[in-house]
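Before relying on records like the one below, remember that each one covers exactly one chain. Contacts with other chains, cofactors or solvent are not represented anywhere in the record.
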Amino acid sequence: MTVGVINGPFAGNGGTISVCSNSAPINLGTGLSGGPDAGGIWYNDQWQPVPPIFQPSSGSGVFHYVVVGAGICPADTASVAATVTQPPNAGDDTGIAICSIDDPVTLFDLLGPNAQTDGTWTFTPQGGGTPTPHTGIYDPAIDAPGTYRYRVIGTPPCADDIANVTVTEPQAPNAGCDASVPLCSNGSAVLMRTLLGCDAQAGGTWVYVTGGNTSHGLFFNPAVDPPGIYRYTITGEAPCPNASAELTVTVNPATNAGQSATVQACQTQTEVNLFAALGPSAQGGGTWSDNNGSGALTDSIFNPSIAGNGNWGFTYTVTGIFPCTSSSANITVQVGVGGSAGADSSVTVCGTDTAFDLFNALAGTPLAGGAWSDPTGTGALGAGGILNVSLLPIGGASPFIYSITDPNCGPVTATVQVTAAPYPIAGTGGTSILCATAIPVNLIDLLGGAPDPDGSWMNPLGISHGDVFDPSLHMAGAYTYTVPGTTPCPDATAVLNITVNQPPDAGANGELLACDTVQGLDLFAGLQGTPQPGGAWADLDGSGGLSGGLLNTTGIAPGEYDYRYTVTVPACGSDDALVKVVVVTGVEVIEVERTCIERDRTYTVHFTIISGDPESYAVSGLEGTLSAVAPFVFTSTPLFTSQTFEAFVRDQYGCDEVRVAGVSPCDFNEEVFVPESFSPNGDGVNEAFIIPGIEGYPDNRITIFNRWGAKLYEANGYDNRGTVWDGSTSNGTAPAGTYFYVLELGNDSEAITGFIYLNR
């Protein structure tokens, strides 16, 4: 007996593999040992075939490797248990900018919704360094910017997962602290930032808050810049907000005691105004010192008649307000003996007087021929002592000095104190335009200037009128406002010319339809209602074809365009109305084709219609059908070869009408087609002897004979409709059989002959 031993299959030794769910695919064979045979098949735990490459994302499971048996040896199986472990999730890398003054931030909240909570934090400074443990709370007050790393420990074989939060920390700007500072009007320009507290940083900008937040430079010049509140702002680097501080500046006037001077006076004078000698720039409110104890000084008035002859010294001092210093000026009065410039006096003159003679206001017995001076620089003094009182402040006394020169005494002066009396102000008249629909107005509000409110009005008819003017009730015209004056001033008047306009009417919205061939479409005709002429048109859609109120549609693409008509009336505003213009184009015909039908000896015409209004395409002059949807193709009914054709195409707009015309393109070998049979048996099919193409030969003649030569049918003008053979004869219906025909076309061509089979 011979025993044959064959090698049985070997699937190897079973085992396990352990992978992370995010690992790369792995060959299940790595879980086998012992040198398994190749060529086996893998099955899952439901014994369904699977690829040998295991995808970790598919989850854990048990897989069986089967090597098919050989001969009498059965198959061998080994199993591999695949364990899949889920990886850790530390979240997503991110970055954040945190201002140095912000509240602490929980870094974990930045990692995204999938981050696990059981990780740890480390910190690496900007520029590198050794990572150090961190709490995961970033506090700008104590922490430094850099990289904060969050690590979640993975379960083997899954590696740890990390996520980085990159923190930048812009420094909050420092605009300093609010401050208030007084400056002197004659001081030097100062860098305003240095006046703020808290060491404000440079690089900011200033605005003048009191002046409506207008922009201002870095320096404050007390001589030209107004006092008030100034705000200093430094722009913060995101996410830091801007920083601001306010500087309140007060400007105290610099003191000016005027100029030192020497004054000549006579013993006959009783009043010499020393203040006037200080010059026009001297400030009031100062104090006088009688340096020589003359006993003749009262306030700023020196009485030479009391002091007597001699030189008398006086000092005028104006005390400064911090930080301004005090100033002084010295006046020396030299008293002699001589004539009179008159006595000092005071006078009240109407503030509207422009030619007041100061000489007449001097007291005493002044000598003529002297000179007048304006010590305070009012600018009101004219030649010869004629004063323009309207240039003086109302209510305050202004001094004017009259001087004469006496050979014995020298200069002798007298002062006239002139007070400009309040005068009535009726304001400035003019023209005022009102709308008839406006609310009533106070007439005083229409006057210019600053009119007194206690005057009265007269209407254009000279009748008393109230302060209120109602445009819907009162007449237009000249209204006179009168304010009564008191001595020494006369009444004041102002005339207001009032015009009342009716409100604008641009009409109502409308619509026009125009072809794209119109060179001057009048848009005004499209307005509804009662529009006023003279308005302005605006091309709202930029069509480019508008000139005034005329629209040139030749360069405008078909479509809808809006044009606004605006009527503007002074004081009444404006009114608008819209005209919609629908620009349409004419129809076009393309792709004209003619198709020959040889069997029927006819032809058809086809063409495509474009542009215009597809909903209203119409074809006249030629019978046929038009397709209901694009492309819109017209197909004529069959035409005889001898027929010409002419068709007219248009739409509802009628912008253009296209003519399509032509002749038959066909050249048939035979003029007509004679069939070989017909069957007049009452079934409705092929009931008559139809000869296609015969209609094109109206002068034709046909004769039909039976087999014995007897004439059964004869006709002229055979046309397949009114004149057509249906198998009947004068003796009844012709029986089934073959018949002979002779067809003459009537065009001098040879007769056509042949046989026709009549089938019953």
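The radius of gyration is 59 Å.
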